[in-house]
Design a protein that fits this description.
Elements lengths: L8 E7 L13 H20 L3 E11 L8 E11 L3 E11 L6 E13 L17 H4 L6
Antiparallel strand pairs: 1-3, 2-5, 3-4, 4-5
Bound molecules: coenzyme A.
Coenzyme A binds next to β2 and β5.
Length: about 140
Amino acid sequence: MTDPQPKGVLTTRTMAMPADTNPAGDIFGGWVLSQMDVAAGIRAGQRAQSRVVTVSIDAMSFIRPVKVGDILGVYTHVTRVGRTSIDVRVEAWVRRGRIGIRERVTEGTFRFVAVDDGGTPKPVPDLTDLPDYAREGSEST
Ligand SMILES: CC(C)(COP(=O)(O)OP(=O)(O)OC[C@H]1O[C@@H](n2cnc3c(N)ncnc32)[C@H](O)[C@@H]1OP(=O)(O)O)[C@@H](O)C(=O)NCCC(=O)NCCS
C-alpha cells in the first residue's frame, strides 16, 4: 500500500512520550506546536543563514490527535521570502505506534524574521547566495 505523501522536507523526527500528555491521555497540543516551531526555525535559519525569531503563526490546524508512542515527523518548506521575513509551511505527520499507518496530524504557517545578534531585523540573502544544503526545502523547490 502506498502511503499518502507529506509536502516538504523531513526536518525533525521524535517520539511522543507519556510526559507530553494532557489530562485526557492524548499528546498536549502545545508540545506538538513547539516541535513544529523548532523544525520551522531550523528551515528558516538555514534559509536566512542567521538567527531567526518566530513572529507569527497562521492557519494552524489540529487535524488528528497524537498518541503516546507515535513517531512525529515534521516536514517544512519555505513558501515566501520578504525583505527580512520568511514563511515556512509546516506539516506534522505521525507513524502510529512507531510502525502503523502514516497520518497528517497538524499543519500551519510560521513566519520568522532574520535578526542580527542584537535582535534587529536583517535582510534575507538571495537564494543564489545560499550553500546547496540550505536550498533544500526553499521556495524554489
Ligand atoms: C520580529 C521583530 C524583530 C520584528 O521587529 P519590527 O520592529 O516589527 O521589525 P520590522 O517592522 O522591520 O518588520 C520586520 C519584518 O517582520 C514582519 N513582521 C513584523 N511584525 C509582524 C507580525 N506581527 N506578523 C507578521 N509579520 C510581521 C514585517 O512585515 C517585516 O517583514 P519584511 O521585512 O519581510 O517586509 C520583533 O517583533 C520581535 O523581536 N518580536 C519578538 C520575536 C520573538 O521573541 N519570538 C519568539 C517568541 S517566544
